[in-house]
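re the bet — no i am not wrong, look at it urself. input seq straight from the record:
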Amino acid sequence: MSANELSTLLWRERELLDLLLFKLEEEQLLLTAGRSKWLHHATREVEAVLAHLRTTGIERTVEASAVAIEWRLPEDATLRQLVEDAPDPVWREVLQSHLTALTALTAQIADVRDTNLTYLRAATRATQETLATVGTGGRGDQAYTGRGVRASAGASSYAHLFDGRA
């Protein structure tokens, strides 16, 4: 029965969305802890979950289309339409619970994603501001030689953060 297969795929999609939420919260923890060293690993894991979600979404679309045809609905019927026009109240309830859970998970994911973007923008802005001040000497920094001794007043107008020798 295709409604059973659709329900199974919806469970799989819910599990993947839950995993995506977890991975995004992991990213958020790394961002708030300033542990950007590990951020690329977390991002790669998010991308892997998104790839699985795309595949599952395609499978769900195919199965939902089969159920729609079986229930004499337009083949491009949405999950909401399947809920509203389900021939059996049991399927209406099952599909409604999937729709409610998917909607809630999607909203949570959007919130965490937006928060992560805010943290990333702040980190990018801070990095850009830091890089903009490198070598400007606008704060009256003391200049030092490569041996850690103060350079003469005319030697340099700012402190060097990087050794320029190759």
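see?? The mean pLDDT is 87. told u. also DSSP finds four helices and no strands in the chain. so pay up
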